Amino acid sequence: MGRPLRIAIDGPAASGKSTLAQRLAAHLGYAYIDTGVMYRAVTWAALQRGIPVTDENALTRLAETLDLDILPPTVADGRPYTVLVESVDITWALRSPEVDAAVSQVSTYPGVRRALTQRQRQLGLRGRVVMVGRDIGTVVLPEADLKLYLDADLETRAWRRYRELQERGETVSFEEVLETMRQRDALDRGREVAPLRPAPDAIVLDTTAMDIEEVFQRVLALIEARCQETPHVAG
Ligand code: CDP
Questions:
Q1: Mutation test residue for ligand 1: of 35, 148, 150, the one with most atoms within 8 Å of CB
Q2: Is 235 contained in some domain?
Q3: Distance separating alpha carbons of residues 193 and 207, to the nearest angstrom
Q4: Which residue(s) pair with 7 in the sheet?
Q5: Does residue 232 lie in a domain region?
Q6: pLDDT at 230
Q7: Domain span at residue 89?
Q8: Residue 230 needs a FRET pair 20 to 30 A away by CA distance; which of 124, 169, 192, 195 works?
Q9: Among 42, 131, 134, residue to substitute to test ligand 1 (most atoms within 8 Å of Cβ)
């Protein structure tokens, strides 16, 4: 078996998916596609326009029509990409506690998911991608060559997110971060369409006690092992 051309990484918030994906993509020379950005951009635009997060029809229309661009970083401020909505740079605004609190509700709506999944699949099918989300291995790219599912304890993930928010100067308490994450987990796992869960053929990694380097090395070893597997010849 050759090197996996489509790598899917799923898992709950702050399980280490994005960091792993960025490092893997840089190492392999692949594109890094963070699908959460699309759900966040729709949520951000809805909050801006005063569309209630309960208005499924309006949110579906928004997801279908939103002028959204994800580009290589345009500013050297540590961002992994630049996100534009109608030419406005919303890269950091997407990470605000307000978007965090609303995004999982917006992501439950089948119409929103249909519109965004279609865009994501087109990008993923080009190959040489590391794609990150909640439903990549199960729905967006079920044919991915390598599927990873990262997980970690709720408390550990909440600490990671709390520290990230603090570093960016957001004023939010640990308890609020923990509660938002608990609610998002429940919505992401419990929704009817494309719930968060490992694909049957995903490799599950618990990162609670692992740092970024350990996770990265573990996954590189997995990829190496896949490359060395001799293809099964029938007959
Ligand atoms: O960075 P973090 O893991 O906190 O979140 P994200 O990956 O940016 O995703 C934000 C939210 O978008 C998730 O909590 C899901 O509700 C939704 N999402 C989804 O439903 N399906 C995806 N493929 C990606 C994100």
A1: 35
A2: no
A3: 26
A4: 130, 146
A5: no
A6: 61
A7: 6-226
A8: 124
A9: 134
